[in-house]
Specification:
Pfam families: Nitroreductase (PF00881)
Number of helices: 9
CATH architecture: 3-Layer(aba) Sandwich
Helix content: 40-55%
Protein name: NADH dehydrogenase
CATH superfamily: NADH Oxidase
Distance between the termini: 39 Å
InterPro entries: Nitroreductase, Nitroreductase-like
Strand content: 5-15%
Structural class: alpha+beta
Bound molecules: flavin mononucleotide
Keywords: Oxidoreductase
Largest sheet: 4 strands, antiparallel
Number of strands: 4
CATH class: Alpha Beta
CATH topology: NADH Oxidase
Organism: Domibacillus iocasae
Shape: globular
Length: 208
């Protein structure tokens, strides 16, 4: 399928990665719905093992719900400052219930059945918790791409894991097995954030 191109002014991947900093104060202006659509069309293309795509996104713009999310995030003010907060969840149980949906449509019926049988056998041999963690490893890839896509469309964000997961599960009516990659307040920045502080390449990269 050819994806539609966009006429929006965007920045390069390099610029998006370089300019991203955690921003915790936002301009009070709603996010353009079309931009959100474009961002999720990019995130949708994230890779995952066996193409299982366990990521699910909840976009919270309701003021009262954001207040409750902020309370669940120990009062971190960026949650209500942001015009939208994206809660990034991972739902492997939904993936497994609908496992046939993940199989590539180009395969023959026989190949599809074989793939479904293989995947089911593999995951049925794991606990719900272990396969939840397996799914979360995939969802974290999409979380990273989400941050870059948000930046690419001229918005800023702050990845967050500092929140009470059970409280956020309750707020969004999510089952216990759903895991969180994090929450991501997004909006136009009203702050510069902190300059990058990173380990040296010598420390983190080895050439063999
Ligand atoms: C998974 C994850 C969870 C984080 N949780 C929080 C958080 O709860 N609150 C917060 O203020 N920043 C949080 N951060 C932001 C980090 O502190 C920040 O990314 C790091 O210091 C590097 O700074 P930079 O994002 O400006 O490059 C989190 C970042 C990641 C990737």
């Amino acid at each position: 399928m050819m994806r539609k191109t966009t006429t929006e002014q965007t920045i390069s991947v390099q610029e998006a990665i370089e300019s991203r900093r955690s921003i915790r104060k936002f301009i009070q202006q709603p996010i353009d719905q079309q931009h959100l659509q474009n961002i999720f069309e990019l995130v949708q293309l994230s890779p995952s093992a066996w193409n299982l795509q366990p990521w699910r996104f909840h976009v919270v713009t309701d003021v009262n719900l954001k207040k409750k999310l902020e309370e669940a995030a120990y009062g971190q003010k960026q949650v209500t400052s942001a015009p939208a907060v994206i809660v990034v969840t991972s739902d492997m149980e939904d993936v497994l219930t609908n496992i046939g949906d993940t199989v590539h449509p180009g395969l023959s019926e026989e190949q599809k059945q074989e793939e479904v049988a293989n995947l089911s056998a593999f995951f049925n041999g794991m606990s719900v918790e272990d396969r939840g963690q397996w799914g979360l490893n995939q969802t974290n890839i999409a979380f990273g791409i989400l941050m870059t896509a948000v930046q690419g469309y001229g918005y800023a964000s702050n990845p967050m894991l500092g929140f009470d997961q059970d409280k956020v599960r309750d707020l969004l009516n999510l089952p216990k097995y759903v895991q969180f990659a994090g929450i991501l307040p997004i909006g136009k920045p009203d702050d510069e954030g902190y300059p990058h502080h990173r380990f040296t390449l010598e420390k983190i990269v080895k050439f063999h």
